[in-house]
Amino acid sequence: MLRLILRTYTAAVFAFIFAPIAVSFIFSFSENRFPTLPLNQFSTIWYSKVFEEPAFLEAFLRSLFVAGIVAPISSFIGFGAAYVDYRYKFLGQGFYVALGTIPPMIPLVILGVAMLMFLTQLGLSGSLHSVIIAHVVLCVPFAMALNRLRLSQMDPNIEAAAWNLGADEWRTMRLIVVPFCLPSILSSLFVTAAISLDEFIIAWFVSGLQETLPVRVLNLVSRQASPSVNAIGSMTFTLSLGLVVLAQLFLVGNFRRSAKRRALNGKQP
């Protein structure tokens, strides 16, 4: 009985979350300018209009450019920060880890204003550089969390064994630590790219005239109700969902393989 209640509750939560997205998908294929049910005729006219609009294409390319830079930088910094926490013991380590989790906990409006003031002082506001810097600040904690989770599964003696066999620290890092963490590194790449593609509040503050796609959609919706927004939202959601699914496949799939290996090793005499 309890299992049935939990499953029903979970299904209701997912339905509540995804129902608006499903509605947006449905109306993105409607020929009507205003959303009405039932749909009169299936059409992809609004998708065509998106690709015919230069402003949307430019904003989409900017978003891809920003995400393509933010993802590797955030993943690199996040991996380094996670490895420092894993390998070394030092005074204030708890504060160091807590500091790495702060940006996602700050309201995005406050973080956006703070980034705008800081970047203005540096003369970097109003450009894609400012969006990249701000998104890196936001994304690093997610990359750090994924890599900390993976590093927690690594035998702490494996590096010492490699050093005793003659490998230096860099060789051990390159041949043991990085390959072991590769699933979490790839997952952090996909997750941070998805976060960067979807984020619009901070980008709205710091991008100036260099609008990313979410900022472009926000500005469009604030002026008029355009059916193209449903098409843009559907494409963006599909892309972001694909990135998250890839991240899950790398991370969860590797965890299952690791669990199977540990189970098999435990059965060996």
What is the CATH H-level superfamily of the largest domain?
MetI-like
Estimate what percentage of residues fall within beta strands.
under 5%
What assembly state would you assign to the polypeptide chains in this entry?
A: single chain
Largest sheet, described in full? none
Summarize model confidence as the mean pLDDT.
Answer: 82
What is the CATH architecture assignment of the largest domain? Orthogonal Bundle
Description:
The chain is mainly α and 269 residues long. It folds into two domains: 43 residues; 214 residues, MetI-like (MetI-like fold, Orthogonal Bundle), CATH 1.10.3720.10. The chain contains twelve helices and no strands. The chain is globular, with a radius of gyration of 23 Å.
Q: Short summary of the structure?
A:
The chain has 269 residues and is mainly alpha-helical.
